[in-house]
Every structure is written in structure tokens, then in C-alpha cells.
């Protein structure tokens, strides 16, 4: 087994996993993430990357050799997790990010949505290699490069100043075959932002992004915006958003003025009513709470012992410093405001859910996002959801079927159902009781290939060795 693992990790074996032919996993408890029920002591037949059957072990084991049968010993099977907001970024961090791809699988994450970065073109290559079975990693949906205004702070974005440039950039995204469109607001003006949403929708893309100060969430929703990235923007719905927006456009309010008004004037009843209106329009929101928590509690947390640091190069982690420096001059009052805002946001989670807004779980893991570790931070995010009062079932949905609904692939993947993609995770404990169960993984099936605990550990070890090697080379 050891040699097999090493060969497949260095790419010498085209088909990793437990040999050829069908695979049978038996003595397993299947978690139904649609209704929260549990099917006990089932067998799951897997072949050609799909779930071929679910049922009684005796019936399903007929054509499966002994070596291809895996006793799951009463473990719990869930669909593979979706991290709906990551950035594989940094033109100086290509091998660093590449080494982390198998780590996502080791953490039970079989799909990621990459929300654009300066490595957009490289991510497209990785996406295609993974889809062809040439590389081990999660299924990737990517925005490639994001739309922005001229001279934005972001590296490697597609900067536009008028509609002509907008169409040119959309042509470019078409030719890159991106999976959705991401738009942010650093220097992009509201009217062109709105035109971008409409034009991308007209080409059939799902459109995600930030909310500009010179637009309201309502205007974005009406233009066909698919998902709001970062739940902090939803706090605007607790205020008279239009008046604040008009103040920004008219020049009577600065952006920081507007920002402080969104929290100081926040009214829960107004927010709850506005959430309902937004929910009825079919909006998705990717809260990404973990980043805010890491920053809000930076002063009280010693990150030096964090387990995940063994997979991140010194160069990768050096990117964390800019936010730490930027926060160093915060007053105690500002620091308290940050904590208060985070707590206010937590309280919104069940209300957002009840309003019918679909929550898609995402970490915003990225080299530029301080202590928001790839893969692991999704599990942190899900535990924050639990603290905030979402039920384990709602949380599992946010990290499985809600992602499939976002991309309209719910008939192909996202549940443990015959005919669907065999992207699955085996857990020691029942996650319907407590989502902390996602931390103890027994095995992972990605694109129909089974990785047992030993192989997952070997993949993690490999990522660590790569980190050590890269650090050495760069000294
Ligand atoms: Zn992001």
C-alpha cells in the first residue's frame, strides 16, 4: 500500500484508489442530507465515478471481488463537502497552492468554488487536470479572473471602464470557459457594475460578488445577481440602504461613514423583513464568517501552534502580515466594534436561513486572508454556523446540496443517491448530532476513487514534505 500511495502521489499511477472495477462499501450508515434521515447498515456500490446502487450487501456484492469490498464498520456516509468560496492565489505561490489540492480531499472537501484570483489561468488548468483524472484534488468550479474597475487594488483582475471593455472581458471569460462570473467593487462604478451583472447573466453565467456602496442589494437582486459573497453586506438590510447609498453618490457621506451607519443604525425588524424579500428572489449568500472571527479575536489568539501551519510555506504565511499590520493601530473601541459586529452577524444566520435565503458555506481561504487556512477553515466555518444556531442538518445542506443548487447540478451530485457522482466522505461519528463529527474522517471517495485513512495521511504527509522542501529552496 505504501508504494502505491507514493507512486500515485508523484503522479506515476494514472488511477489511484482501490484497483479496478466496482467498489462496494458495506456496513455503512447513510446520512440523507435532504431530509435528515439515516439509513442504517447499507451497502453502496460504486463504479465509473458514480453511485451504482444502494441496498443490501448480499445483493450488491455479487460481482465485486473480495479485495474491492470495504467494511465501513458502522461509519457514517455523507456527500463530499463543498467549500463555496476559496481563492487559489499568488503568482509566487504556484507550487504552494498545488501541494494543497490533495489536502482538500483529506479534509473531506471534494468540491471547491474558486472565486477568482491572479492565478485564474493556472486554476483552470488544475480544474481540467482534476476532471480528467490526471491530478488528485477537489472538483473545481472557478470564476477565473474577476471583473473590476481601473487601477483596483487587486492583482490580475479584468479591469473595465466602459461597456465596450466589459464585452471584451466577457469574451475573454467565455474563451477561458470559466464556470461563473465574479465582480467586485474596489474601483468599479455602480452603473457599470450593474451593467456587468446583466451582461454576464445574459450570457448564462451565475454572477457573484461584493456589494458596491453606490448600489443597493435590491438593485443587484433585480439585475439577476446570484450570490452575495460575505454576509457582512446583509447588515445593510437593517438600515434605510437607499438613503445611505444616495448619500454616498451625492457626496454627503464617505464610504467609512456609510459603513459605520450600517451598524449604528441597524434595526433587526427592518433587517428581518428585508431578508424575506431577498429570500423570495432566490438569492444565495456565502457568509464567510471565519475570516471576520480570526481578525476580531486576533488579539486573544496565539496561532503559533496551529496544526495547519505544517502545510503552509513561509512565503504563503508571509502574506498574512498585511492585515495584521493594518489592524495594529486599531483603538480598543475599534477592536470592540469588530467583535460586536461579528457577534451581530452570528445572530443573523438563523434569520437569514428562515427568510429563505440559501446559505452556501464557504471559507474564503486564501493566502491573503489571515489565518483562514485552506480546507480546515471550512470546518471552522461550519462550527461557527452551529454556534450561531443553525441545525447540523441545515449546516450539512449549506456545504453539500446548496452548492449543487447554486450551479444547477443537483440532479448529478450532492447526495448519497444511486446515479449521482461518487464524491463521498466516511465519518467516525454522526454529523447530524454535531458537525464537529466532520473532523474525524475515516475515508474519502472522490470521483469514485477510495482513499482510506492511511492514504489520506500519506497525502497530508506529502503536502508537509513539499512545504519543507519549498522553504529550504527559498532560503
Ligand atoms: Zn474571497
Automatic annotation (TrEMBL):
Amidohydrolase-related domain residues are 76-239, 351-449
Q: Where in the cell is it found?
A: Membrane
Alphabetical UniProt keywords: Hydrolase, Membrane, Transmembrane, Transmembrane helix
Residue spans crossing the bilayer = none
Q: What is its main location?
A: membrane
Q: Which GO terms describe its cellular component?
A: membrane
Protein name as catalogued: Amidohydrolase family protein
Transmembrane: present as a keyword of the record? yes
Amino acid at each position: 500500500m505504501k508504494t502505491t500511495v507514493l507512486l500515485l502521489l508523484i503522479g506515476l499511477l494514472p488511477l489511484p484508489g482501490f484497483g479496478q472495477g466496482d467498489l462496494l462499501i458495506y456496513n455503512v450508515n447513510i446520512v440523507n442530507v435532504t431530509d435528515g434521515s439515516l439509513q442504517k447498515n447499507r451497502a453502496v456500490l460504486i463504479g465509473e465515478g458514480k453511485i451504482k446502487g444502494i441496498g443490501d450487501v448480499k445483493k450488491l456484492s455479487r460481482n465485486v471481488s473480495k479485495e474491492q469490498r470495504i467494511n465501513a464498520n458502522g461509519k457514517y456516509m455523507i456527500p463530499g463537502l463543498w467549500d463555496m468560496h476559496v481563492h487559489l492565489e499568488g503568482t509566487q505561490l504556484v507550487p504552494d497552492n498545488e501541494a494543497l489540492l490533495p489536502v482538500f480531499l483529506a479534509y473531506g472537501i471534494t468540491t471547491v468554488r474558486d472565486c477568482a484570483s491572479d492565478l485564474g489561468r493556472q486554476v483552470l488548468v488544475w480544474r481540467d487536470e482534476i476532471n480528467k483524472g490526471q491530478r488528485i484534488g477537489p472538483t473545481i468550479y472557478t470564476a477565473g479572473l474577476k471583473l473590476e474597475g481601473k487601477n483596483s487594488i487587486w492583482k490580475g483582475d479584468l479591469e473595465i471602464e466602459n461597456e465596450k471593455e466589459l464585452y471584451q472581458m466577457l469574451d475573454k471569460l467565455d474563451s477561458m470557459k470559466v464556470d461563473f462570473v465574479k465582480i467586485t467593487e474596489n474601483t468599479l462604478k455602480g452603473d457599470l457594475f450593474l451593467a456587468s451583472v446583466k451582461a454576464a447573466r445574459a450570457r448564462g453565467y451565475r454572477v457573484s460578488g461584493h456589494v458596491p456602496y453606490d448600489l443597493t442589494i435590491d438593485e443587484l437582486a433585480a439585475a439577476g445577481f446570484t450570490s452575495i459573497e460575505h454576509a457582512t453586506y446583509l447588515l445593510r438590510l437593517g438600515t434605510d440602504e437607499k438613503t445611505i447609498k444616495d448619500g454616498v453618490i451625492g457626496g454627503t457621506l464617505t464610504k467609512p461613514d456609510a459603513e459605520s451607519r450600517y451598524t449604528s443604525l441597524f434595526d433587526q425588524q427592518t433587517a428581518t423583513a428585508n431578508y424575506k424579500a431577498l429570500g423570495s428572489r432566490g438569492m444565495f449568500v456565502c457568509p464567510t464568517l471565519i475570516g471576520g472571527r480570526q481578525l476580531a479575536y486576533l488579539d486573544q489568539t496565539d496561532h503559533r501552534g496551529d496544526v495547519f501551519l505544517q502545510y503552509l510555506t513561509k512565503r504563503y504565511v508571509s502574506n498574512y502580515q498585511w492585515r495584521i499590520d493594518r489592524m495594529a493601530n486599531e483603538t480598543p473601541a475599534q477592536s470592540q466594534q469588530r467583535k460586536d459586529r461579528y457577534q451581530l452577524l452570528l445572530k443573523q444566520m438563523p434569520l437569514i436561513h428562515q427568510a429563505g435565503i440559501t446559505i452556501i458555506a464557504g471559507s474564503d481561504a486564501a493566502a491573503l486572508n489571515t489565518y483562514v487556512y485552506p480546507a480546515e477553515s471550512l470546518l471552522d466555518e461550519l462550527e461557527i454556523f452551529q454556534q450561531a444556531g443553525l441545525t447540523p442538518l441545515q449546516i450539512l445542506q449549506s456545504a453539500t446540496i446548496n452548492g449543487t443548487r447554486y450551479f444547477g447540478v443537483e440532479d448529478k451530485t450532492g447526495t448519497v443517491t444511486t446515479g449521482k457522482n461518487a464524491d463521498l466522505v466516511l465519518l467516525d461519528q454522526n454529523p447530524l448530532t454535531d458537525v464537529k463529527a466532520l473532523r474525524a474522517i475515516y475515508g474519502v471517495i472522490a470521483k469514485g476513487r477510495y482513499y482510506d485513512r492511511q492514504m489520506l495521511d500519506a497525502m497530508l504527509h506529502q503536502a508537509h514534505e513539499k512545504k519543507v522542501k519549498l522553504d529550504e529552496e527559498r532560503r
